[in-house]
Amino acid sequence: MTLSLDREPRADPPARVTTANVKLRQRVGEIWAARELLAAMVRKELKVKYKNSALGFVWSLLNPVMYLVIFYLVFSVFLKNGIPLFPIWLLSGLLVWNFMSMVVPGATGSVLANSALVKKIAFPREILPLSNVGAGLVHFFLQMTVLLAGLVAFQHGIDVGFLALVPLAVVTMVVLAAALGVLLAAVNVYVRDAGHLVELALLAWFWLTPIAYPFRQVSDTLPGHGIPFWLLNINPVTPIVTVFQRAFYNRTSVLLSNGKDRLPLLPDVGIRWHLTFLLAVLIGSIVVLVVSMRLFRRLEGNFAEAL
Amino acid sequence: MPPAIEIKRVSKKFDLGKESFDSLKERLVHFGRTKSEEFWALREVELDIAQGETIGLLGHNGSGKSTLLKIIAGILQPTYGEVVTRGRMSALLELGAGFHPDLTGRENVEMNGLLLGLSRRDIAKRFDDIVEFAGEQVSSAIDRQVKFYSSGMFVRLGFSVAVSIEPEILLVDEVLAVGDEAFAQKCLAKIKQFQREGRTIVFVTHGVDIVREICDRAAVLDHGLQIADGKPADAIRTFREHLFATGRAGEAQGIYLEEDEVEEEVPEGEAPRPRKPRRKVLRITEVTCSHAHQDERQHVYPGEPVQVEVRYSAEVPFDDPIIGIGLFSPNGVRIWGGNSQTLDVALGTLAPGEGAARFRIDSLPLLDGHYALQVGINDRDGQVIDWIDSMDGFEVGQHDKSVGIVALHVGLEHLPDPASTSPQGVATPEETKSTGPTADPSSPPEATPGPAATAEPEPVGASAAGQGHVAVGDAEAREAVVDGGVAKGEGAAVGSARLDRRAQ
């Protein structure tokens, strides 16, 4: 009944230093070393979410499907916005939003939700918000299959040139969510309002992002106020969403169902324009992520006590 | 070899004021007025813990000992200073802390292992050992969600995972208090095994007994200050003395006379000064150990009656105190402990004035050595009122040559096989060995020793067929059997077979 485990030789074990100032690079190394833990946390996150539920993973698909049905009914049927294949248009943008709206609140509450771990076990705590990002990404790809199924069903052609931007858009989306998640997770430990604030902010943010309505519907009105149209891209999610829409919906304007008018959807610009804004968001997100991780490090020192 | 743990001028500050203003509204309401209160949980603690050392961190609640442990574990960061640890570390702060109720035991073992820094490969390799160590009950439920586990199973699996990472450094925070007695013993056994294997153990507790039992060094913390560091016995003494000198043991209530209640504010950044002892409502004034031959010799002999008289002085009427004593062996093991409550003697209300409680030990069944005494008075809720630790108790001398600490009355009776013709009492151990019986219990009694028998390492082996038996007191049995030459073949013993097994 004893644990007879072979012991490694004890020659010069590596020293670990616990101090208030840990270099960022060292921290990134620690997180990298804990990648197996991160993967396990993501699995746990997914497993626990649907444990004891009959439908399990199907729920994660039912949510966007429900959105799709409601928005389709409201915008296409009742409001008659006249956009053909509105579900495809909608889902291309909604994918990105579903990711953000799942990851950011989840990550915000992650340290609090795992207080038992944080108080008793030493591990890089960034893993907690990051595991929400990972779980969100799994859902993202699952929902992507719904979109792909829709594309096949409607025999809708995609823009191959813009498809090349999609991976970069996904990376940007992940970095942005991670940056916000890490930041808010730490802040939420000290200011518990952060969680509620995030919920509220996301609601506003959704309608500020051109998902349910086309980009051009707003941007075309801006020059009249002396504002350049591209300023809409100040919302960091917008450049990501427009790349998805451009790639999967594959039109910058559509002929309305009345057969006469054309409805402008997306700016009639080249791939370079999209790439520029995408890169701007990516770089901005990386900067925020670095700042977030620093702040996280600073605040982490007292997590175990503040929880 | 560099120390396993270096604690370099570690200070830890907590901001207490912030705690109560968690929400934004409260922050706004109190904006500008939030004078967050600073609290230094640790002040420049400096300790080097050598590899293989078992150190106890002693301190009352709020002394900072748990904070220090968490900093060593890397759960908290020090405000100033740093901690360097060398080697794989496992912290037993709360067993099964990382378990998720909705995951199965198996999934949780993996999760917890990863949290403790193992790789998935390592976990897979150790999984069976972990589950086996956790016990039958857990292993049969390993694929069930842990929310269906009993708290005992939970803790057993948690401990099993924590020790399975084979830590070079083990941090223990009074977790042994949880779980059933048998499991607590198992934990302790594991810790002692780690100790023998030369691992470093940091043990946080306010129980002095456990420190005395397992630690080879102890440090005492008080209000974040390190006030002692050294041999357990010395540290424990400092712990007690300091506690009483500064009156912190009695912070609760009713231990000191009202008029002495002056709490001194310790200025920021300064060490709390030992305060002048306050007068206790009830205190031990004198303890005398006496025996019948007091005048002729100082020491007592085993079996003689002794008594311990505890004199006390009460300043105010005191309801239902409990007076107790503890007797300790020369190496610090508690031999006996008891008090008026365990002895079913109600002391009632003590009137102001003096009195005494006399413990009579009808016969002191101890062998040669110096035995220490501990005396204490508690109130009926168990709060310590006054205490004297490790004072001189009894000096025991001895007439016979037996060794140990307990004076057992042992008789010896030898019952050889009456039919045996072998000369008795002449066999030497060497002869015994070469002529020992075969190991086969089914062989006839007259079996002659063969080559197999010669190879048999046990002198009196399993010759269950023999007809004689030896009835002796435990300890000397083996010797007696050999000396008696029973091993010649016929005389053997039920008892000796049992002893042989133990001797392997």
Walk me through the structure.
The complex is a heterodimer of chains A (307) and B (504). Chain A is 66% helix and 4% strand. With 307 residues, chain A is mostly helical. In chain A, strands 2-3 form a two-stranded antiparallel sheet. Chain B has two domains: 5-17 and 35-235, P-loop containing nucleotide triphosphate hydrolases (Rossmann fold), CATH 3.40.50.300; 282-402 and 440-450 and 457-500, Coagulation Factor XIII, Chain A, domain 1. Chain B has a six-stranded mixed β-sheet with strand order 5-6-7-3-8-9, with helices on both faces. In chain B, strands 14-13-17-18 form a four-stranded antiparallel β-sheet. In chain B, strands 2-1-4 form a three-stranded antiparallel β-sheet. In chain B, strand 17 and strand 18 (384-396) form a beta hairpin. In chain B, helix 4 packs across helix 5, helix 4 packs across helix 7 and helix 5 crosses helix 7 (151-164). The longest helix of chain B has 16 residues, at 181-196. In chain B, 37% of the residues are buried. Residues 248-254, 258-277 and 427-504 of chain B have low confidence and may be disordered.
CATH class of the largest domain in chain B: Alpha Beta
Instruction: Give the low-confidence spans of chain A.
Output: 1-11
Instruction: Evaluate the radius of gyration of chain A.
Output: 22 Å
End-to-end distance of chain B: 36 Å
Approximately how much helix is present in the residues of chain A? 55-70%
- In the CATH classification, which architecture of the largest domain in chain B applies? 3-Layer(aba) Sandwich
Beta-strand residue percentage of chain B? 25-35%
The assembly state of the depicted protein chains is: heterodimer
Series of H and E elements of chain A? EHHHHHHHHHHHHEEHH
Q: What is the arithmetic mean of pLDDT of chain B?
A: 74
CATH H level, superfamily name of the largest domain in chain B: P-loop containing nucleotide triphosphate hydrolases
Strand order of the largest sheet of chain B: 5-6-7-3-8-9
Averaged pLDDT of chain A: 85
